[in-house]
Design a protein that fits this description.
Layout lengths: L27 E4 L1 H12 L3 E3 L3 E20 L2 E18 L7 E11 L10 E4 L5 H32 L18 E3 L5 E3 L16 E10 L3 H9 L1 H8 L4 E2 L6 E4 L4 E9 L3 E8 L8 E9 L4 E11 L3 H20 L7
Antiparallel strand pairs: 1-3, 2-3, 3-4, 4-5, 5-6, 7-8, 9-15, 10-11, 11-12, 12-13, 13-14, 14-15
Family: Belongs to the AHA1 family.
GO molecular function: ATPase activator activity; protein-folding chaperone binding
Protein name: Activator of Hsp90 ATPase AHSA1-like N-terminal domain-containing protein
Length: 340
């Protein structure tokens, strides 16, 4: 293997935030099929195609068969998608008999191989005479344009959502904020400088409760585990100074020391157990956070149980997990490609 700076760059050993895929050289792939089906349905259901002649509505995505994926090779993003779609529509003429007619829109091959204007769109109507034929012409002349717009929205959304986190920065590209104070996300401005106090800590009895959270991420369980245990990735999603020693008994400090604790147990891709506290809690009081990773066929679910949370802090702690952990991880690494 060549040394750093010498020879074939494919063999250069370089530290990466995710500790894998040096220089983004290797092929990585993320499945976008589930997201695509939901996106296509949301884009087409209830679409109106109105004119001076007729009022028409796409009522249902009857068939959505195929697959989609996002791929990274040699630092370049490549998107694959291939779908066969069947849409149902119904409508009636503005100055007609009032009778409603129905038909289908068939898109036999929506794929990256064809430009949007090249995609074949087939219009059918059940009653192919009289008013039915007029409605079919309206769909053909006006509906095709609207359908292509919706297909364009799907393709743009696919590329935007699944480009996130596919090409991770090199270690030297993850920069610390060059400021002394930053927003921690836990309702305070936290100082990057240690607070020194000469007073003796006061031990208080704390009335506590248990917090349970579940969240879905579109990634492998190991990817999510890494996002919570690799210092470069934790720095990326917290956007603050991080201290992290992910071993049993190892300590951590996040958000400039606003969150701190100790790792009690680590099972890669399966479980993390921590002693965890928020700086504003009573001195010396820690909760216990148990995070389990449940990998499904196309996503991973986190199950978090946090015991020992001060009752007065349950709501704000829940909000902060969701906003400053889960949402930030999804935005930073592209693990949140789910429709609301």
């Amino acid at each position: 293997m060549a040394k750093w700076g010498e020879g074939d760059p494919r063999w250069i050993v370089e530290e990466r935030p995710d500790a894998t895929n040096v220089n983004n050289w290797h092929w990585t792939e993320r499945d976008a099929s589930t997201w695509s089906k939901e996106k296509i349905k949301s884009l087409f259901n209830g679409v109106l195609i109105n004119s001076n002649v007729a009022n028409i509505e796409i009522t249902e995505v009857e068939k959505c068969e195929g697959e989609a994926s996002a791929n990274n090779r040699k630092g370049k993003l490549i998107f694959f998608y291939e779908w066969k779609l069947v849409l149902k529509w119904q409508g009636k003429l503005v100055d007609g008999t009032g009778e409603e007619h129905s038909g289908t829109v068939v898109i036999p091959n929506l794929s990256e191989e064809n430009d949007i204007h090249e995609i074949d769109i087939q219009i059918t109507v059940k009653d192919n005479e009289g008013e039915g034929e007029i409605l079919k012409d309206v769909m053909y002349n006006g509906g095709k344009h609207i359908i292509r717009e919706k297909l364009s929205e799907y393709i743009a959304g696919l590329k935007e959502e699944f480009s996130k986190g596919m090409i991770l920065p090199k270690k030297d590209e993850v920069k610390q904020d060059n400021i002394k104070n930053l927003s921690s996300g836990f309702n305070k401005k936290v100082s990057m400088q240690p607070v020194v106090s000469n007073s003796k800590p006061e031990v208080k009895k704390v009335d506590t409760s248990t917090l349970e959270l579940k969240e879905k991420f579109q990634c492998r369980a190991q990817d999510l585990y890494d996002a919570l245990t690799k210092i470069e990735m934790v720095t990326a999603f917290t956007r603050s100074e991080v201290k992290l020693d992910p071993v049993k008994g190892g300590v951590f400090e996040l958000f400039g020391g606003n969150i701190s604790g100790v790792f009690d147990e680590l099972v890669p891709g399966q479980k993390i157990v921590q002693k965890w506290r928020y700086k504003q809690w009573p001195t010396g009081h820690f909760s216990t956070v148990n995070i389990k990773f449940d990998q499904k066929s196309d996503h991973t679910e986190i199950n978090l149980v946090q015991t020992g949370v001060p009752k007065s802090e349950v709501d704000v702690t829940k909000q902060n997990w969701e906003r400053y952990y889960w949402s930030s991880i999804k935005r930073t690494f592209g693990f949140g490609a789910f429709l609301p």
